[in-house]
Amino acid sequence: MASSKDVLDGHSKHENRSSNDASKLIYPSAAAKSPHNSLETFVGYAERTGLDPRSTVYVGTRYEYQVAAALSRYGFHLVRVGGAGDYGTDLLGTWTPPTTGTALRLLVQCKGGAQRVGPNLVRELEGAFASAPPGWRGTGGGSDGGNANANVMGLLVGQRPATKGVRDSLGRSRWPMGYACCDAEGRVMQLMWNHRAADGGLGDLDVVTRRSHGDRGEQSEVVLVRQGKVLPFC
Fold first, then answer.
1. Of 105-114, 152-161, 208-217, 218-227, which one has max mean pLDDT?
2. Could you tell me the CA-to-CA distances from 215 to 29, 121, 211, 219 in Å, in that order?
3. How many CB atoms lie within 10 A of CB 151?
4. CB 124 within 8 A of CB 110
5. What would the pLDDT profile of 11-46 be if each residue is shown by its tens digit?
6. In CATH, what class is 22-205?
7. Is the pLDDT reported for residue 221 higher than 70?
8. Spatial separation of the C-alpha atoms in residues 166 and 6, rounded to whole Å
9. Residues near 210 by Cβ (< 8 Å), separated by ≥ 6?
């Protein structure tokens, strides 16, 4: 597992790949038909329709938008597609790591609230690669049918740090995969990926925890580091 100074086996060499034209990706129609497309619009929709804030729909949807907003600070561009026919994913999008300039296509599953994130969810995310919509399908080796050079990565997100079982499962996976811990306040507390993802261009990128003091006491969140330099938030 690479990043957060939690590397299993050091850095991996980067293999150059053709650039993906992320702007041409077609997202599932359900995303365009949704009555909300951000945390702010969802909260407004929930208030208008009387959606119970304690319901699983409210908690899950709110967390998905929180995750999308939190990861956007690191350069992730994510669209919520969760719901009926969601191909087993909650968010789809892209991330262009500063180490490559090439867009990774992302399949993201979010597990908010009290949901336990175990190795079984890593296997579930592996299945999402095959059932993903066109443009986000992978074969574990970077091939994507008509998008033969597509570089697809799966990301599992939970409110608690990855357990040893999750880290081990990610490390064994043949798919480019990672894990992020995003707390209830929308702070990214952990971000890591396996060596398959490192081989896809993330091998020169590190993740470290930065701590600061404010009105709420000590705060911490992860930052991306390249060649010893902290990368600014987007």
1. 152-161
2. 43, 36, 13, 9
3. 22
4. no
5. 333 333 334 456 678 788 767 788 999 999 999 999
6. alpha beta
7. yes
8. 13
9. 220, 221, 222, 223, 230
**Residue 177 pLDDT level (bands cut at 50, 70, 90):** very high
In three-state form (DSSP H/G/I as H, E/B as E, the rest C), the secondary structure along the chain is: CECCCCCCCCCCCCCCCCCCCHHHCCCCHHHHHCCCCCHHHHHHHHHHHCCCCCCHHHHHHHHHHHHHHHHHCCCEEEEECCCCCCCCCCEEEEECCCCCCCCEEEEEEEECCCCCCCHHHHHHHHHHHHHCCCCCCCCCCCCCCCCCCCCEEEEEEECCCCCHHHHHHHHHCCCCEEEEEECCCCCEEEEEECHHHHHHHHCCEEEEEEEEEECCEEEEEEEEEECCEECCCC
